[in-house]
Amino acid sequence: MSAPAECRPASELADPLVEAIRGIDTTALDCVQVNAAVLADAAHGAGAHLELGGRLRFPVRAAAPGALPTVEQPPAEQIEQMAGPLRLALDTGTPVTDGTVLMDLLPKDGSALYVVGDAYRMPWLPYHGHQHMDHSVLLRAVDGGARVEAVDAYDNETPYGRAEPVVCVYPRSQAAALFDGSPAVPVTARPLPAEPEPLSRVLGRNAGDAALLLAGEAPERYAAAFRDHPDQKTACGALLLETWLLNRSRRLHAAWVAHHAPGSAHAEAAAERAAAWDELTGQCYLASRRVERGRPVPPQIHTALARLLRADAETAVQAVPREPGETMPDPTSIRRTVTSTVADVLGTDPEAVAATDDLSRLEGFASFQMVETVERLEDAYGVEFAPTDLQPAVLRSVDGLVDLLLRTTRTREVTPS
């Protein structure tokens, strides 16, 4: 494939979209987030993208048999979750494999189309010709549509070289050829007038997730999956990606806290947590290199991984402002109540309820039982759930119901009646 007609570092160009890149710490965002962040800052002003760092997520995806767990999210899920914090309407179109069709979707006014494609086919990236992976880029028509600009703010040191924010200009036909034969997902973006979610609500949701994690052994199980995997070369490579993702998310969270509460104890703690993840990522890189040479894995990385996840959760719980004497609800007690309530509604054993991650798989589960479970839990704790929180995915999961109760009851100490 021929080289682009022109490719220049974003730092050398003057343009509203490119100017937005210069106000972003692009090393704190992954390859799906970073170009959506550019659109947010261009639309709402410098720093708008920091709202992506508000939610400090803890859930780890359950691994299929023989597979390793991961915190990585599919692009479609990320796009859905980014829209609210970035105050953008992100409308995902049908994947296309014809580059000409993709070019025809570019806005005629020269605004950008956000696209998720294959990094393997993007010549401005070090991954080009080396590794297939989902990657976002902003495409816009210039010179009356005769040429196409690819704007990419991704910033990372890869095994194949450095990726830096760049703008590449291609003849329209050449740009189309880059996307021929490989699915590309077009996403139209427009600004929304909504205000950012209130700080107290974000902190409360973080604390609910964190309390749920602290109630069990999820951090230790997550770390043990990598420690005990029979193929340590594969495990170390996967763990390097995991810590890379966690490191970037914690750095972005620290920047969000510093933006909203500069100089606070919470900002200091978040910065310390981010620095610890940066250090662990470096240790995992060293471990991966050692395993490649047939040397043993330093055992401390797995212990550190579990410890850092717990420390993050403890920091999130402590970050929620409370009145004197106010405490976080006990997640272990709430889990027992949820499990026994669901079991009673369905007429099944609590062990069966605790063993499934999707309650709809249990015999007898239907909409009526879902409603009855919600009403019983509201009555038990003397609360009323917000209608917007009663999402099907939440109500089909013990974890979802526990998290819902933790968030709803955290403002006061309650016990089931």
Identify the strand order in the major beta sheet: 1-8-5-4-3-9-2
| Number of individual domains | 3
> What is the H/E order?
EHHHEHEEEEEEHEHHHHHHHHHH
Could you give the distance between the termini?
Answer: 69 Å
Helix-and-strand structural type: alpha+beta
Which sheet architecture does the biggest sheet show? 7 strands, antiparallel
Could you list the spans in which at least 5 consecutive residues all have pLDDT below 50? 411-415
Quote the beta fraction.
5-15%
Total helices: the number is 15
In angstroms, what is the radius of gyration? 23 Å
Q: How many runs of DSSP E, i.e. beta strands?
A: 9
Overall body shape: globular
- What's the mean pLDDT score? 89
Helix content: 40-55%
Describe the protein's architecture and organization.
This protein is α+β, with helices and mostly antiparallel strands and 417 residues long. It has three domains: 12-191; 199-318; 331-409, Non-ribosomal Peptide Synthetase Peptidyl Carrier Protein, Chain A (Orthogonal Bundle), CATH 1.10.1200.10. It is 47% helix and 12% strand. It contains 15 helices and nine strands. The chain has helices at residues 16-22, 33-44, 75-86, 99-104, 172-178, 199-214, 218-227, 232-260, 265-292, 300-318, 331-346, 350-354, 367-381, 392-395, 398-409; strands at residues 6-9, 88-92, 113-118, 134-142, 147-152, 156-158, 161-163, 166-171, 185-191. The strands form two sheets. Strands 1-8-5-4-3-9-2 form a seven-stranded antiparallel sheet. Strands 6-7 form a two-stranded antiparallel ribbon. β6 and β7 form a beta hairpin. The radius of gyration is 23 Å and the shape is globular. Residues 411-415 have low confidence and may be disordered.
